[in-house]
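Two proteins follow. First one:
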Amino acid sequence: MTGVIDKKPEVLIVDGNPENLSAVQEILRGLDVEFARAMSGQEAFGLVSEHDYAAAVISAELPDMDGLKVVEWLGKGERNRFLPVILVCKRDGKRKAVRAMKKGAYDFMAWPTTAEMLRGKIRFLVELYMQRKAAEKHVLKLSESMNKLSKSHVSLQIQTNALEAVDDAIMITDHRGVIVWVNAAFERLTGYEPGEVIGSTPRILQSGQHDARFYSHMWQTIRSGKVWRHEMVDRRKNGSFFTMETAISPICDGRGEISHFVSVTHDLTERKQLEKAREEAIAARTQFIAMASHEVRTPLTAIKEGIRLVLTEATGPLNDDQKELLEIARRNSERLSRLINDLLDFQKLKSGKMEFDMHQNNINEVVLEIAETMMPLVNEKGLHLVTDLDTTAPIVAFDKDRIQQVLTNVISNGIKFTKEGSVTIRTSCRDNTVQVSVQDTGPGIRGEDLPKLFHEFEQLAAPNGSKMGGSGLGLAISRQIMKKHNAKIWAESKLGKGTVVHFVLPIRERRRKLREE
């Protein structure tokens, strides 16, 4: 569809939390779109009044109004009446989501959401937008041609041949809605030959899935001289249904009165099927990971226990070579066990099935506990582990087990990549948050690799080009955990200067949220 529209389609993101705005934009990065951002309902109203967006992702909770009001307002406005809106709710906001759908929202999603699903939905809506723009452009050209019909029979023949060659189904009716012409694509799409429909009305295609109000609005729009566009379901001659994107444009005669209507229809059946297949594939992959991980875990537990018994000489004495081989087997079984646990955790986070137990905790105590468990690994590599803790850090609400998991992932990464020197853990208070920073004296990370650091299954290469091992899920899981805490995690690094990973936990916001819940 390159070249159909003059500029890239725009996606509007509305959320009062800048971090959520950035998170949604990060998920959608890679799509060939521009982004507009608004942090309130009023700001969103101003933007949609002046711009044509391909889609909008709107938070159900805005600082100045309920997201439902934005959806309702869009439904009343003529310019953006059919702007597809995806309402983003809390996982417990199902009722609000249902109300949003009744008020005209295209879809709803729970936040945090599955990145693949959100990207897929926006990609689909952008494609529809581009198809719609192409159809409108085509209808405009067609309208200009229709106004010149009386001037030249040759011109009429040329236009007719051109319309016959178009892949989209085109139907022309008179001002009463009686069909006067259809192209070859119409016959291919509906199964009706021209002689079967010319002289009748488009009611022959009605599927029964749209009410009288739907068609009333269509006629009101086109009789007022405006273009009507909508996604709808019609029925073929053989009785089967098909989903389509339709644009209907009025054609005026020399006196400015409507003489004809031109309908351009693009079949969406295949795209709908592909979208459904993509969602099913994602679900199947998720299910497979969970099933495979569980199936491997049971025999692995028995293997680990067997190795432990033999290695502790409970079954008899071992020589040095046997101990060395068993120790290698033990380390690899532990590595496989960590990989399985990472896969299961990642699957639970992606599917929203991981539960979080929020309680008031002391972050400094958690840091000291994790630091103590890391000492054997630090001593083994001959490093120094330093803790620099802000004693004024307040008690904040978080899931202790999950934050321990984040700290373990980040600190163990720092130890793994550091050959000499130290790993320092700091806590501090800033901007109404408690910040935890883990700094190492390792080789650092190339600037082009930093954006990949928190992506799943990414293994960054060491400066010498070698892979450092691991599942590539630890930091991806950490990022998902921080999102569940309405917090963020990020890294700073310079090649040869080490790396520092920061994460923050909100103070007053989290307490307020707990009281409201």
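Second one, unrelated to the first:
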Amino acid sequence: MGKLKLPRLISDGMVLQQKKPVRIWGEDEPGRTVTVMFLETEYKGKVSETGEWEIFTDQADAGSGYQIEIRDDAGEERVICDVAIGDVFFCSGQSNMELHIERVMDRYPEEIGHCANKDIRTFKITENPEFHELLKDHKSGVWKAVSEETFPEFSATAYFFAKHMYHMAGVPIGLIDASLGGSRIETWMSRDMLAGYDDFLALADRYRDETFVQERLNENQRLAQQWHSRLDSLDIGLQEDWPRASFELSAWQEIEIPFFFGDTPLKGFIGSVWFYREFTVGEQLAGKEASLWLGTIVDSDTVYVNGVQVGHTDYQYPPRKYTVPEGLLKEGKNSIVIRVEVEIGQGRFTDEKTYAIFRGDDRIDLSGKWLYRIGAACDIIEATDFVSWKPTALYNGMTAPCHKYVCAGILWYQGESNTHETADRYLDLTERMVAGYRAKWGEELPFIYVQLPNFRIERYGADRDDVVNDWPFVREEQRKALKIPGTGMVTAIDLGEDNDLHPLNKEGIGWRLAMQAMKLLYGKESECEGPQIEDVHAEKAEGCLWKLTLTFRQATGMYADPQANLEGTTAEKRQKLSEIRDFELVDEKGMVHTASARIVKNRVLLTCTEQMEAVQEVRYCYYNTNRGAMLYNQEGFPMTPFRIQINDRP
């Protein structure tokens, strides 16, 4: 085997950064001379005593269809084909960055027919935690151009960013995708970036013990299998074969799907629950293959139609989109049985989702009355130890090998997993990560990130009665991170889905990311963000009522949009969303007061509707989701949620 080796990133189909000297690097026998031939120019470099070499080429303009020849003086040679030159972006974060196009195809059914573009390429790095060292090369990854075959594999956020970036900039776009669902910010940071966070570093040290890690992984598997096996052994539905056998319905109770277990006698229930419904099929659907959609279900489900299993999902997040095979549906009466396993007492059939069997225009609505019966109750499942989410793990194994690759900027979509115990550290961690990444890449790369969108979280407090309202805190930390020079933030409070952690509107996110990139990289002057709070003036009126004037920048043509976030909502919610309801005032005791709002040019005039002695702070959209019409500027960008202290006192 030859001594001349290249990292995975330096491979066929790669995209090199335009208008910057770019680094080509690899390994070889110490003392050898390596020659790189690119764009008719020859570059030479010496292999170090440690067997490493790197060569910088001159900066070049955008283009594609090139090749790079690499050889050493021992006669070894490598040829890199189909090289493009354009803008390269390092794309990282958790599930909303990782989420593949395949998961959003139903929203963009026409996209696959127009996606093919040899100048939009991705390099996907698969999950690889590492606690011992900074890896020099990735263990996975090849460059792929978008085509009908590769399209479903692309990060949806990154693809739509690249699509719009390509149309606006007109150059090839390379996407290095290092992302993982559920991951926290600290797992994408190095030890030096986390200096002073002793708890994080101690945790990273603990997981350097390979025996301990393997024990944790084995324990995860053992505990999960033990819980499910015990539940299965107790479940009378399995014992009596409810999916396939006839049973007496007198022991079953009625319930309306969709619903939250917490709103019914099933509140706090842990174990298995069975659901049964009969439905009538006409001749149009009889014998035909059909789609079965069941929203999302917490935590896992197995679905049977006429006694035949047609779907199973192991965890709560994926949409339940199953296929009823040809020949299974029969004209007349049919049955559907769903077994739901609830692991921690927060079961649900998510509302405002589709529950139906359909084929083309033929549709059978499955929302409404069902029958249910408990199969078995069980103790709460033991929490999974997600090794990959531990501090430094993904940085060492996925990010560190990218630092030599010259890029245009960094795209970051993360924060959901830090809304719990580490929310108060998020701003400091962000500042450290941005500074650390720029130091590792050796330049002040633009850092463009997505603020958390709207989402009605179904996570409960210790008594499981009160919904925890912690996303606004992280949103505010993200807003404050705009003080870091060279950063851009996508406000996404109007692009999420109240009932889904993984909203489908990834094109809206991608377009706003691209607008930010065009401003930071190309100096594009058009507006790319919504109204941002600039100043607050408070005046005390009679009877301890207050009037405040809020001044905003990027607020030309400001208006309230009653249509924002209305997709799939109820008539009652649509009525509430027609009013401006998201401004609040907080007094010196921490009590929250409502305020009416009126837009006057680039200002909002607030009037407190309740008496209060002093105004401590002003909030806008400081909830998990909006409660009323959202505010936009004339360019169609939403006002950023905020929480600010004011100094005016009576």
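SUMMARY FIELD: The chain is about 15% helix and 30% strand. Confidence is low (pLDDT under 50) at residues 459-467.
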